[in-house]
Amino acid sequence: MRTAIYPGTFDPITVGHMDIIRRALNVTDRLIVAVALDTGKEPVFDLAMRGQLVEADLASLGKEAHRVEVKTFSGLLVNFAEEVGANMVIRGLRAVSDFEYEFQMACMNARMKPDVETVFLTASEDTHFISSRFVKQIARLGGDISSFVSPNVASHLRSHFSSAH
Length: 165
Fold this sequence. Notes:
This protein is of the alpha/beta class. It has a single domain (3-128), classed as Rossmann fold (3-Layer(aba) Sandwich). 42% of the residues lie in helices and 19% in strands. It has six helices and five strands; from the N terminus they run βαβαβαβαβαα. It has helices at 15-24, 47-58, 77-84, 96-112, 132-140, 151-163; strands at residues 3-8, 30-36, 68-73, 88-93, 117-122. The chain has a five-stranded parallel beta sheet, sandwiched between helices. Strand 4 (88-93), helix 4 and strand 5 form a beta-alpha-beta unit. The longest helix is centred in the middle third of the chain and has 17 residues, at 96-112. It starts with a strand and ends with a helix. The model has no long low-confidence stretch (mean pLDDT 94).
């Protein structure tokens, strides 16, 4: 069985992330959405809440949802891959600027764990411009984020930013 990891901060999960998740199911039998603690970023939502939001959005996968699980992790991705028996890492690419960073990371991971392959999926034309960072900024400023995230995520973001003021 091919097991892949799709790692990220998912702060919050967007329709772009969900697009990559759906398409990753075409190249793997089992997908672990790995919500990262150690990101060097300051997330709006804590690790548990980010995991819960991902779990809730996975319901939209319907009959394919049973092939996806959510796990939180800390530390090196390649160590987590070994822990869960994954032989593939899925990464989404939105632009050339993503590729440079992701390529370097894939090379570092390959040096540490040569048996874990990185597979890049390019963002679809409908979602290539969506980033969690922009979604949070738009939400913080009271803008409409309904086309970028699920209604559940939008509600959590609105609640977070209304209580932050």
